[in-house]
Amino acid sequence: MKRVYPKEQVCIGCRLCEVHCAVEHSTSRDILKAFLREQPRPLARIRVQKNGYTFVAVQCVHCPEAPCVYACLTGAMAKDPISGVVTVDPDRCVGCWTCIMVCPYGAIRREAESHTIVKCDLCPGQPLPVCVANCPNEALVFAEDGANA
Fold first, then answer.
1. How far is the CA of 60 from the CAs of 37, 53, 65, 66, in angstroms?
2. Domains and their CATH numbers in the chain
3. How big is the CA angle at 68 (ends 58 and 19), to the nearest 5 degrees?
4. pLDDT single digits (tens) 55-70
5. If we measure between CA atoms, which residue out of 12, 6, 106, 105 comes closest to residue 54?
């Protein structure tokens, strides 16, 4: 399965991955409308964290044995048996946040207004996840397991 891998040695912490992710998952898919007019404001499914002078992008890695899927009380979290992508059905999510507590990467975020969660979905319908496609330093790589650069 292909996943997004961060290369912290080249990440400059510009957070463009967060911006493009939020826009991709917005209603309008327009950068100005998404950030200035949409309510609630769209959430990025990726988060850049800083540790000293190092930056690293944190997002769902679609674990082979995803603890969030097993912990989900309503079955809103599911792992596609063919693609391996872990998805969430917002209509089934009740906002118990159990998946957030068990995620070993801290990659699941809560959407406070709708009382649901959001996480990386690898941007279905796009040739590359938008975070990877728009990273100016190529600090994010979309590659097969074990083939990360």
1. 28, 23, 13, 10
2. 1-59+122-149 (3.30.70.20), 63-119 (3.30.70.20)
3. 30
4. 999 999 999 999 999 9
5. 12
